[in-house]
Amino acid sequence: MECKLICSDIDGTLLDVNRQLSKQTIAAVQRVKSEIPFLLISSRMPKSMRLLQSELGTLEAPLIAYNGALVMGAERKIIQSTEIPYSITQAICNCIPEFKLHFSLYHQDEWVVPAMDFWAKREMNNTRVSPKVCPLVDILALWKQDQKGAHKIMAMGDSDQLDCVEQFISENCSNKVNAYRSKETYLEISNSQLDKASALSKLLSEEYPNFSMDEVMAFGDNYNDQTMLERVGRGVAVANAKPEILSSIQTHTLSSHDHGVAFTIEQYC
User: Fold this and answer.
1) Do residues 69 and 151 touch, judged by C-beta distance below 8 A?
2) For a Cys staple, 83 with which of 54, 55, 149, 252, CB 3.0–4.6 Å?
3) 25 near 265, Cβ under 8 Å?
4) Which of 49, 4, 5, 14 lies closest to 222, judged by CA?
5) In terms of pTM, does the model score above 0.70?
6) Domain spanning 86-191, CATH class
């Protein structure tokens, strides 16, 4: 396979044990980026991804945020934007009012949290982005006025309570949204019309029309990466990937903590 483009998930795939870009990873990307574009494709918000692009020296590159819900080309041009409709955003956030779950709402570069609680502080530390604090009922009222939906909802808290949110989604709106556990205490929710694979295909058609999916090498570790890893020419699962991903993806590399992305770039590029 001739590799014309590389794309990588971030959390659990690209970052090291300290949740940072290692020197090995930065060096590998910077060595190839002039000839082989290196793109980030993540559940993260664009602002957080651009911080990593700056370290990699790829700020000019397109990116795919929110698991494909927001596709941004060169000069931050929005190629595709797919929200969870407001009515569903509201229903999910209010599905079990007696539960004390944290609901983070994301729209483009806007991140709103109901309080600067444990979960908000944890995400702020992980992503290096600060949220806007606003009671959930107030932000939902504002979004209703603008008929604005979420590019992503992240529910965080007790695992058993998240099970109930998943059940609500399964019974009421599974045809509208996808929900998956990035951690036992994290439930990430996005529009079901898209995934990383379809978003990548859209990006290629707009920004790299001479490239095909067969000429892409992609890295991932989690359920939201599976379709992308299956559809590109060389899908690579890091050693710490979910067991289902490791069993379904033929090519494996070292773990994210052992700089698996850098190792494979050196091996194939």
Assistant:
1) yes
2) 149
3) no
4) 14
5) yes
6) alpha beta
Which CATH fold would you assign to the domain 5-81+195-268? Answer: Rossmann fold (3.40.50)
**DSSP class of residue 116?**
S
CATH 3.40.50.1000 range(s) for the chain read 5-81+195-268
Distance separating alpha carbons of residues 197 and 228, to the nearest angstrom:
4
Cα 196 → chain centroid: 8
pLDDT of residue 187: 95
Q: Which residues contact 250 (CB under 8 A, 6 or more apart)?
A: 235
Chain segment 63-90, per-residue pLDDT in tens:
999 999 999 998 889 999 999 999 999 9
Integer Cα distance of 152 and 135 in angstroms: 17
Residue 177 to residue 52: CA distance in whole angstroms: 28
Q: What is the pLDDT of residues 8-37, one digit of tens each?
A: 999 999 999 999 999 999 999 999 999 999
What is the distance between the alpha carbons of residues 158 and 3, in angstroms, rounded to a whole number?
Answer: 42
